Model the fold of this input.
Amino acid sequence: MNRHEDKLILGGKEFTSRFILGSGKFDMELIKAAITHADAQIITLALRRANNAKGASILDYIPEGITLLPNTSGARNAQEAVRIARLAREMGCGDFVKIEVIRDSKYLFPDNHETIKATEILANEGFIVLPYMYPDLNAARDMALAGAAAIMPLGSPIGSNKGLCTKEFIQILIDEIDLPIIVDAGIGRPSQACEAMEMGAAAIMANTAIATAGDIAQMAKAFCLAIDAGRKAYLSGLGRIIHKGASASSPHRVFRTTTGGEIICP
Amino acid sequence: MSLKETRINHMQYMEGMEILHDSTIMHEVIDGMNRIDFSSYTENDVKAALSKQVLKPFDFGALLSPAAGDFLEEMALRAQEETRRHFGNSIYLFTPLYISNYCENYCIYCGFNSHNKIKRAKLNMEEIEKELAAIAKDGLEDILILTGESRKQSDVNYIGQAAKLASKYFKTVGIEVYPMNTDEYAHLHQCGVDYVTVFQETYNADKYETLHLAGHKRIFPYRFNAQERALRGGMRGVSFAALLGLDDFRKDAYATGLHAYLLQRNYPHAEISFSCPRLRPIINNDTINPKDVHEKELVQIICAYRLFMPYAGITVSTRESAHFRNHIIHIAATKISAGVSTGIGEHQEDSEKQGDEQFEIADNRNVKEVLAAIYDAGMQPVMNDHVFL
Done:
């Protein structure tokens, strides 16, 4: 399947790119690089930075054809997240919203409980809701029931570039939740993005890893290739992994049975 | 100067001052500061601190110690890494607006002190609005409202009205005024204020007593607990500082960090920031200077703050030179002021200054010049990162 047939569908809208640019580290060069070199089609937007901005505003840098994903950063509870989402819609940012509810300024961990509440309210108001969450199966189920369009578990603390610290729990979400699972936060290297995609993640969101790279354009491209590689591997079906010893790729002996079947003897 | 015996007890709350009976932070900070021995830190302690992801107060002490003086380069590199990780290449801009310089305190190093013969003024709402409009023209979106510390001349309602006006022109409104009670902070929050800055000046209560001779500011514990009351009043963020050069700067920087650290542990949602002011000359006393806190020591302190609390904002004001500020934004500072006047009523083109300055600033650049310097440094100016909810 080529990339144009393998679409990511969020809230009924189709995307051919599986890379989402976060906007935490706001930078024009970064946005350009993400669109040109990483084929980003979705860019998150922190409303608190864009709100009625005079002069240089992140909104001025978003080209046409790019889907804005306003986030609710700055919200400390469901009520505040709902208010920010409504403000974003009023400003013409569309119906997509990424819910971030954070009441911890040190690690910036999301509050799942409040996020579920906000998801329910906003989904009922017709928003396409993508909740950022700590990978917990019960919470993810509740978010799905509340009307989320995708689930966005964190790989490790935001901005940490530590990769998939929560790998096993993300795998459980991928296996159990019938919604796209988008790994958000903590992806520090293209190889980590590739790994998450191999596991079956639907998309990757990254910001810091690219924003803080020596060559932003080159790193954006590297992420794009890694995400594609991981996706292709996932779609192809990964080979089995032998944990002890080795498995020969070409069998030593093949017995042809009397019924015509083959028995492979390692 | 009055004799010590005739001065009021600086550790005893005055009538009307709210006491936080359930808070232990002040005792923990003072205890921690008294126990720390900077001379006992070795090179290995500094190296260990530099290799950690999450630093404890002991490690913070190591980075402030004389032993860390030989590791400034490494500290700056690590600080830069953490700053980029948490803030990208963004530099936030703001400007202070002084609306009154009346003061009832007698702080011997401050230009506003009630015994200093300067021109006093207080802007009325019409004048404040003109100043706000003039500042907003430059594109700034974050303002810090300041007053001298006079509850009579600039009462809470006056500050609240000014904050409401400021909210019309600015998206982020902070205050740096006298400490107040929780309900008063709650009132100002309703008026649009989300950030509160209070400088403890020095955390050494004995030294504090000799510098703050009269007025409400003399009461050390009431000032200390201001940030905690502000958070209880619903403020989103609080800022901390010791005025470096008043006392042992290492101890003061350590106590400042510990104060912020403990408050964050008790109020995890709080947005924390540091200011790093050094003493400056004032009108009628141009000999005031930061003594042993040279730029090298200041960089050490700023890097230590950054590594101890990587997610905290760090403000470097116009007390420092353009040269210093242009460099420190590469390493650890995240917020700088521009177009600054510390006098009263100086922002409108057609009006003359009404009241004198709090201190002499060292960086006179206007907003355009500061913006140009940020772009030249390959960084991104950010005017606002806040939505008032």
Notes: Chain A has one domain: 8-265. Residues 216-236 of chain A form the longest helix (21 residues).
